[in-house]
Specification:
The protein is of the alpha/beta class. 46% of the residues lie in helices and 19% in strands.
Length: 217
């Protein structure tokens, strides 16, 4: 069995922000994401609200990207990561990744951002494993849907348990870093859990559970 250090990205390694939000804003500025796509997302938001799943539904909804050629989103993703994401990665977060690697942990990054954007974390942070939202592609264009589980909330725990046999994760000897109360579900798996830049709900959970609390900038 192996010891792993599992890092959330949005709000943790990337403080106060999400990779996908920055990508969407850039896509709107560049005319890649249309007004019709935004209206469609608003319509879906109403549906999620009445189903009682507004946050989770919006996290998983990639309909803004429906019909856009993969080649274009890949080009925009590379430019977005280089200009707007890489410079904002937490210095403390980078140092923590490096320290965990020196302490013989394997490094796993988890993010609900699309795979075409998340893969740029590989050369930046050199993790051993990356789990992100795998996008459906048909005829070279995005369908606006995620293949399989979307890494958010309960699904993060399910994905980690699914990966355990292959990665030989010894949860009792591993550490997790995350920032949102929805992450508490998978944080409970680990022998050591660190709430990074936590919101109020996660801070309360962390104090009740005796987890460490850190602030990364």
């Amino acid at each position: 069995m192996a010891s792993w250090a599992v890092f959330d990205v949005d709000g943790t390694l990337l403080p106060g922000d999400s990779m996908e939000a920055r990508f969407v804003k850039r896509g709107i500025r560049q005319g890649m994401i249309s007004p019709a796509g935004l209206l469609g997302l608003l319509g879906n938001a109403v549906k999620f609200f009445f189903r009682g799943n507004l946050t989770g539904g919006l996290k998983e909804d990639k309909s803004l990207l429906k019909g856009i050629p993969l080649s274009r989103v890949e080009t925009e993703a590379a430019a977005c990561f280089s200009a707007e994401i890489a410079p904002r990665l937490s210095r403390v977060g980078r140092e923590t990744v490096a320290r965990c690697r020196e302490e013989s942990y394997h490094i796993l990054l988890m993010t609900g951002s699309p795979d075409f954007l998340a893969r740029h974390l590989l050369p930046a942070l050199e993790p051993d494993q990356l789990i992100s939202a795998e996008m459906e592609i048909f005829g070279g264009r995005l369908s606006g849907k995620v293949k399989g589980l979307h890494p958010y909330g309960e699904a993060k725990k399910a994905l980690l348990l699914r990966a355990q046999p292959q990665l030989q994760i010894d949860f009792s000897a591993s550490v997790v870093f995350a920032n949102h109360h929805s992450d508490a579900v998978h944080m409970e798996l680990f022998g050591r859990a660190v709430a990074v830049n936590p919101g109020r709900k996660l801070e309360r959970i962390a104090r009740a559970q005796g987890w460490e609390i850190e602030y990364w900038r």
